[in-house]
TrEMBL record:
Belongs to the drug/metabolite transporter (DMT) superfamily. Small multidrug resistance (SMR) (TC 2.A.7.1) family. Gdx/SugE subfamily. Its main location: membrane. GO terms for biological process: xenobiotic detoxification by transmembrane export across the plasma membrane. The lineage of its organism: Bacteria, Pseudomonadati, Pseudomonadota, Alphaproteobacteria, Sphingomonadales. InterPro entries: EmrE-like, Small_drug/metabolite_transptr, Small_multidrug_res. GO terms for molecular function: transmembrane transporter activity. This is Guanidinium exporter. It comes from the Bacteria. Pfam families: Multi_Drug_Res. The chain crosses the membrane at residues 33-50, 57-78, 84-102.
Amino acid sequence: MAWIYLFVAGLFEIVWAYSMKLSDGFSRPTYSAITIIAMILSFALLALAMKSLPLGTAYTVWTGIGAVGAFILGIVWLGETVSVARVTAAVLIVSGLVLMKVSSPG
């Protein structure tokens, strides 16, 4: 169950990163509220996952899901630049996440 909590926490991290971008420096109340709610949910689920997963594993996977998810979202919805270096970096992050998962108990 901890891995499910962690995965969903990572999804909420993507949501809050995206809504923070759309909040325009917290000047748009709706997106600001979405950011804060998604942050709270993300942290709460991360905390639940950390009850049984090692700190380093949980935190690394959580930030990795958020980083790669935000990267993909930025390309797909915000028209951010795609380059070989950026895609390679994302692939390396995902590779690290997979290695963390297979090498961790739980």
